[in-house]
Amino acid sequence: MSEMDELHAKLSLLGAIDMGIVVLDRDYRIQMWNEFMTNHSGLRPSQVRDKILFECCPEIDEHWFRQKVERVWNLDARVFITWEQRPYVFRFRHSRPLSGQQQWMQQNITLMPLHDTRGEIFQVGLILYDVSEQATRAE
Amino acid sequence: MTLKVTLCDDSRMARRQLLKSLPKDWDATVYQAEHGEQALQRIDNGEAQLLLLDLNMPVMDGYQVLEHLAQHERDCVVIVISGDIQPEAYQRVMRLGALAFVKKPFKTAEIAQYLQQFGLYQPSSGHLQEASEVEVTANALDVYREVANVAMGQAGDHIARVLNQFIELPVPNVNWIAPSELHMALQSIDHAERVSAVSQGFAGSGILGEALTLLTDTSVDDVRRLLGEQLSGNEQQQRIEALMDIASIITSACLNGLGHQLHVEFTASQPVLLGQHKALADLLNQPQQRWQKVLAIEIGYQLPKHRIGFDLLILLPEDAVLRLDQQVAHWYAE
Fold first, then answer.
1. Which of A68, A69, A75 is the best residue to mutate to test the B interface, defined by the most B CB atoms within 10 Å of its own CB?
2. What is the ipTM of this complex?
3. What's the mean per-residue pLDDT of chain A?
């Protein structure tokens, strides 16, 4: 298998995974947007690539969200957002639009520093977990 | 003339590391002290013309030693060596008259550089001697204590930056406990108060553990006020956000610090709200006792200007510690 094939296989895996993956650069421009994000938002990677996150997703509370992301840059550490403090960051429909209890997908989000080969943080990764079921059970 | 030097640190492990990093060709005799009171005794005995001083210690801490020295004329200069990397700790120490502040973990060459800079050491001036009564044997628990000490300083610095407050660092407690005694491990929380807790699992190199962050309800409300406009939602959501923020900041920083020193890359999972407004005993009451004993690293942070106190409890089950022990064996083995 060539290196390209291997890379392709890895990227398909990242695409198929049932979690949202977004990568943001220092200016909040979207560098990666996986299939999960595309499927739930209706926005294709080509539509969001290099665009500012808040322009693509105006439902995000920008002032608040920036503080969370800046903390990743400042502390070089992970920051977590749970559905209990804020039910969702991205306004996505519940993944079962008919039988789901809530209207919107309840989300846990992990923001993590991404490092270059010298160990310096150069991007922030966002992982979105759909925790609607968990939230329904807890209520 | 042979210089008399006292190493003052409550951690045997730390004294041992420091001793190892002193230049062998230094015309000096080295004494040891476990806390500030012993250090002052050494000074009175004329055994500490130079004091290498840790800050966070039981009985009498490093700040108190410096205050004492500032008030009483003594033939003693002090270099502070501490894991408390908050800018305010540095400023306090320098105001109190310390020569220098060396941050833990330090590099071996750093100590000799400072000594040379202050004219305390010339290469090949003699040889380093240990005062005869010195006995330094360290075990794995000592290693964990010192490693926790350094990691705690880094986590405290992160919290201090986010809350914009000086954090008082404690002496971490590292002990084997039975899971049923968890609540007894928490020394800085008033057991009569209602508490909230967040749990984060963590893993690295097959070593799995759990980090619990506990805050009293009054502390949660005070943190909420300090974070102010950084929080969103209604009061209850703000409480959870404050709790989650504190928990994930100290857990991430502490695990980073621990991992860095132990050469394990720990990754923490999403925080889980264990409970709110509960009695400590109820919160920590586990129905299933899977483990006979766990290694508990307890760190109780205090914000002196506020009523805020919170406790970080890093718990490692027996099998995780077995793996860790192998990882650290070379630290104390000769």
1. A75
2. 0.81
3. 92
